[in-house]
Design a protein that fits this description.
Layout lengths: L2 H76 L2 H22 L5 H21 L2 E4 L11 E8 L8 E6 L1 E4 L2 E4 L1 E7 L9 H9 L1
Parallel strand pairs: 2-6
Antiparallel strand pairs: 1-4, 3-6, 4-5
Helix pairs in contact: 2-3
């Protein structure tokens, strides 16, 4: 084989090798492209799924917010419904007592008993809703619960003792809603000792 033929053969072999290499590269690129396309499709599907989930969550949160607003509004509107139901019999009793008092044959004893019964009904209704009275006679003065209206010098009482309640106070679930107006004791003023000279002057006078 001549040198020219040998060179031609080598050239053909190089061309074939190059073509095979290009085919291999093209096949690899095609496989990579298909793999990337598959990953992209999966990512787009996942993104769409997440977006749909986000929209559902937003819708659920909006529904929950509206429901809570509605429940809160109803709670504000009807918070006193049970208390009002407890007060209705008290009002009925007061109206009947007033009608009885206006009658020509009204009896004071009967009216007193009716008033006591009505007061008992009201007290029971208040206790059901944790409304308690503050009536601190003979108790130490407490500025968190009591309002001192006056002070009296009392030798037989410890200072700062409630000796009288002018108006009861009330708490709601242990929270003060009206302080008790009270009279508080204070120590009696000490009398200055009388000197012997002053005694002699008084005797001479």
């Amino acid at each position: 084989m001549s040198d020219k033929e040998t060179e031609q053969t080598e050239q053909e072999q190089l061309t074939e090798a190059s073509a095979e290499e290009n085919q291999g590269t093209t096949a690899q690129q095609s496989a990579e492209t298909e793999e990337l396309s598959a990953k992209l499709a999966a990512a787009e599907a996942k993104a769409q799924e997440n977006w749909d989930q986000l929209l559902r969550n937003r819708a659920e949160m909006e529904n929950l917010r509206r429901r809570m607003e509605r429940d809160l509004e109803n709670a504000h509107k009807f918070a006193l419904e049970r208390f009002a139901q407890e007060l209705l019999p008290v009002r009925d009793s007061l109206e009947m007592g007033l009608a009885a008092a206006r009658a020509d044959d009204a009896v004071v004893t009967t009216l007193t008993e009716g008033a006591e019964l009505t007061l008992k009904m009201l007290t029971t209704a208040m206790e059901k809703f944790s409304i308690k009275e503050v009536h601190p006679v003979e108790q130490p003065f407490n500025p968190e619960l009591h309002q001192a209206m006056s002070m009296l010098e009392m030798a037989d009482k410890a200072p700062n003792t409630v000796v009288d309640v002018l108006q009861k106070g009330y708490t709601l679930n242990d929270r003060l809603i009206r302080p008790a107006m009270v009279v508080v004791s204070k120590a009696a003023a000490k009398t200055a000792p009388v000197s012997e000279e002053q005694t002699n002057i008084d005797e001479q006078a």
